[in-house]
Specification:
Blueprint: H1 2-21, H2 25-51, H3 60-77, H4 79-103, H5 109-131, H6 139-158
This protein binds fe (ii) ion (2 copies).
Length: 159
């Protein structure tokens, strides 16, 4: 759940940066609408972490700053690239959450409810960004993002 919380911290950074940069008012309001749902996710994962007697990642400020910086870069390229980045990010997060749902104990109903709802929200965020005109990211960008996500999720297990 700490890994999921880190993901939501990153979502805050990404959407915040992207909504600051775009000059398209419709896109900005779409990004902010998704960001509001990410704020719910952040709160749910944090509450669940607390209830499980765990703690958030100590590196969260670093993850936030990194995600914000990447969001800025993607958004500065173009709105379509920015949306492409949203699609790829949300798909990777959704796949991670599906995997987590398979590993979660059947009896841990509160965690399952959170992960299941987030997974469906992330899927929808990807679909909305796709419909808004996202450009597919070049494969090297996708591999880099997967590698960065791997570092993040592995580290968040411990720190
Ligand atoms: Fe989320
Ligand atoms: Fe999302």
């Amino acid at each position: 759940m700490r890994v999921n919380h880190v993901g939501e911290v990153c979502a805050q950074g990404l959407y915040m940066a992207q909504s600051c940069v775009t000059r398209d008012p419709q896109l900005r309001s779409d990004l902010l609408a998704a960001a509001r749902e990410e704020t719910d996710h952040l709160a749910w994962t944090r509450e669940r972490l607390d209830a499980l007697g765990s703690r958030p990642s100590l590196l969260n400020p670093l993850w936030f700053a990194g995600a914000f910086a990447i969001g800025l870069v993607a958004a500065r390229v173009s709105d379509q690239a920015s949306l492409g980045f949203v699609v790829e990010t949300e798909r990777q997060v959704s796949a991670h959450l599906q995997g987590h749902l398979r590993r979660l104990p059947e009896a841990d109903l509160p965690s399952r409810a959170i992960v299941d709802r987030m997974q469906r929200d992330e899927e929808r965020h990807a679909a909305q960004a796709q419909a808004a005109g996202a450009l597919p990211l070049p494969p090297p960008a996708r591999w880099l993002m997967k590698a960065a996500a791997k570092v993040m999720t592995t580290t968040a297990h411990y720190i």
